[in-house]
Amino acid sequence: QVQLVQSGAEVKKPGASVKVSCKASGYTFTSYGISWVRQAPGQGLEWMGWISAYNGNTNYAQKLQGRVTMTTDTSTSTAYMELRSLRSDDTAVYYCARDIVLMVFDPWGQGTLVTVSS
Amino acid sequence: DIQMTQSPSSLSASVGDRVTITCRASQGISNYLAWYQQKPGKVPKLLIYAASTLQSGVPSRFSGSGSGTDFTLTISSLQPEDVATYYCQKYNSAPFTFGPGTKVDIK
User: Fold this and answer.
1) Domain spans, chain B
2) For B49, which of A47, A59, A101 is closest by C-beta distance?
3) Which CATH superfamily, name and number, covers B4-106?
4) Taking CB atoms and an 8 Å limit, are A102 and B32 in contact across chains?
5) Which residue of A65, A114, B45, B53 sits 20 to 30 Å from the alpha carbon of A89, by its own alpha carbon?
6) What's the pLDDT tens digit per position in A41-66?
7) How do residues B40-78 score in pLDDT, each as one tens digit?
8) Chain B contact for A2 (CB, 8 A cutoff)
9) What is the pLDDT of residues B77-100, one digit of tens each?
10) Cβ contacts (< 8 Å) between B46 and chain A: which residues?
11) Chain B partners of A94 at a C-beta cutoff of 8 Å?
């Protein structure tokens, strides 16, 4: 079955960087894009950006431009999301999700909690 | 940017009730609208895309309708396992914004 398995929880200090991984299985990795969505505690869903697993093209949310980088490693069917210059309001659960058609997401990874605290 | 709103923000209904959630876009988005269900402490799950296409494996009591700016998600007969927050999402163009969510629980 299609599955996305993410890396474990992280605790970071303000100003640091975090890199979250998302390993795909059960489908041809390069046939679909991957989006990243985050959810602050008790809040709604925020789309962060998308990467094509086919050619590496990216599309980032404007508010994160310059702080986020999404990459893929096709040899291991893994997508990565790096967020730099972390602030306390970056504390959230970060999800990867397969883009099945034009930014419709299914399935989602299990989520990675990133806590930014001094 | 196009803004997405949902109403109500929360509702409480009895098992077997028909439940309707509304999602509104600030500009027309054709039928580029998806619905997701997030149960407490769980991962979001795709229910419907293209405003009315049921994702494989989703119970038929869920249905979606609408086009342009106004959309609805309907649960024809509410079940205990439907307790969740429901989010709409536009995907006609970036940013692919989600609505603020509608929390559904059992009365």
Assistant:
1) 4-106
2) A101
3) Immunoglobulins (2.60.40.10)
4) yes
5) B45
6) 999 999 999 999 999 999 999 999 99
7) 999 999 999 999 999 999 999 999 999 999 999 999 999
8) no
9) 999 999 999 999 999 998 999 999
10) 100, 104-107
11) none
